[in-house]
Amino acid sequence: MTQQIPIGPDSVADEPAGPDGTHALRPDLAYQRHAIVNVAYLGVPGAGDRGWVLLDAGILGSRGAIESAAAARFGAGARPAAIVLTHGHFDHVGVIEDLAEAWDVPVWAHPLERPYLDGSAAYPPPDPSVGGGLLARLSPLFPTRPVDVGARLRLLPEDGDVPPLPGWRWIHTPGHSPGHVSLWRAADRTLIAGDAFVTTAQESVYAVATQAPEMHGPPRYLTIDWEAAGRSVEALAQLEPELALTGHGRPLRGPGLRQALHDLARNFAAVAVPEKGRYVEAPVRAGEPEATRTP
């Protein structure tokens, strides 16, 4: 039976939203929640045109909110130098095509995500049988059309550098998707985990609405390889982060974050993995046919 790892309020890292609609986490890192998902803005306020980077691209309908926040934070008309994606699921690329075109920017992602970002393949279907709440049951209704930013797509280099983000490294954290990546900055031990783990029960409408801080594995209805997902959490726990922003839920910090992340890694099978599910019984490994099927 899956469990939860509660987190005390003193470990929650975010402050009230500022006038630009974002929550500041570091002088050059802020995030904004768009209904069910977070996007991040990397760059100091007032950075100006091409002086910042957008991480992930929200859900359908979030373009206006992202553009407004960017203008308020970085300056009117300030376009990013790039968009970096943790992965290509619908709630992280909802307005990627519109923004990439309007801003005329490259889109960076892991090579294994390429089929889902150049229009050539769709992800394996969601699994509503994993339980946990209404969002899981509704998952077959989520958008499945692959986006196509192939003309602007750039593949992250093998050496771990993130070209538009000096000082950051990418870490391959598969399981939730074949080419999922997390971003790590060792200088201040800041982790942007994407959906490698999340801090809310993303399967539950109630949990998503209340945003009570809890440590969870990746959203269950879209995770296709639980063994890989567990290894990814173990790798991130070993970093001993001071601050973590995830794709869903509130950011966490300090000893409470580290303890909860180690607890998740140590008890991953009990805490994160569904009792049953399509990909529990038949995982899809990176490079296998179902992971790159034509839509």
TrEMBL record:
SUPFAM superfamilies the UniProt entry points to: Metallo-hydrolase/oxidoreductase
Pfam families assigned: Lactamase_B
Metallo-beta-lactamase domain segment(s): 36-248
Region feature (Disordered): 1-22
Alphabetized SMART domains for the sequence: Lactamase_B
Source superkingdom: Bacteria
Protein name as it appears in the record: Metallo-hydrolase YflN
UniProt source species: Methylobacterium frigidaeris
Gene transcribed to yield this protein: yflN
